[in-house]
Amino acid sequence: xxxxxxxxxxxxxDYVRYRPTYPQAILPFLEQTCQLRADCAIADIGSGTGLLTxxxxxxxxxxxxxxxxxxxxxxxEQRLNSHSGFTSLAGRAEEIPLAADSVDFxxxxxxxxxxxxxxARREFxxxxxxxxxxxxxxxxxxxxxxxxxxxxxxxxAHAPDYAAVNHRNFSGIESLSNFxxxxxxxxxxxxxxxxxxxxxLKGRLMSSSYAPTPDQAAHTPLMQALQQLFDQHAESGRVQxxxxxxxxxxxxx
Length: 253
What we know:
There is one protein chain. The chain is α/β, with parallel strands linked by helices and 253 residues long. It has helices at 12-18, 26-34, 51-59, 70-80, 117-127, 146-158, 162-174, 176-179, 198-206, 219-233, and strands at residues 42-45, 63-67, 86-90, 103-109, 128-141, 186-196, 239-250. The protein has one domain (4-142, 164-195, 242-250): 3-Layer(aba) Sandwich (Rossmann fold). It is 40% helix and 23% strand. It has a seven-stranded mixed beta sheet with strand order 3-2-1-4-5-7-6. Helix 4 (70-80) links the parallel strand 2 (63-67) and strand 3. The longest helix is centred in the last third of the chain and has 15 residues, at 219-233. It is globular, with a radius of gyration of 18 Å. Residues 1-7 have low confidence and may be disordered.
């Protein structure tokens, strides 16, 4: 399996076009619960192509987008450089290129499960201002519809890396209680949805690091299974993907 910082290098275009964004409802929620304001400085760690970064930039906050993968970081820069509050930094959770006590919030979207917890915790404590917040977010694909249950079974059957990556994702969530000690963390959940034609569904799949690429033997059977799944479940040429956006938040010092 590739190193985490390189797993998405060949998937950037699909990631930008087909990954779900984050619900706008996150912003008023953080205003009410964590005193988020537009002048709060935010470090978005493992920022990727900037999907979560963009949410806070549009809100008006200055955001330091810290990303180790050059291709992902470049895509974020291309999309977001027009925002005056956007700063792109090459770095990782275990070695963040920011000064001590420099940010009010640390965020991570779809990224915490790739961090080395002990080293990341040390860095989070270092760069957070007193009273600052850690906000960790995942878009979790639901399996509450026949389509999405069939999609999960398809991945288990045809994507050899899926089980390992999926387990790592959930293991990351389960480790939060240790990472966020001594403070208690809270969970908020938000609805999220996407609609795809077949090209979009294929792009959504290929944006995932576990999806076999065209040079791999498993790719063709996976695409055949995906086409069959789409044909069985599409209505008016489209399918719906439902997510729950899970937001964990805590003060760690």
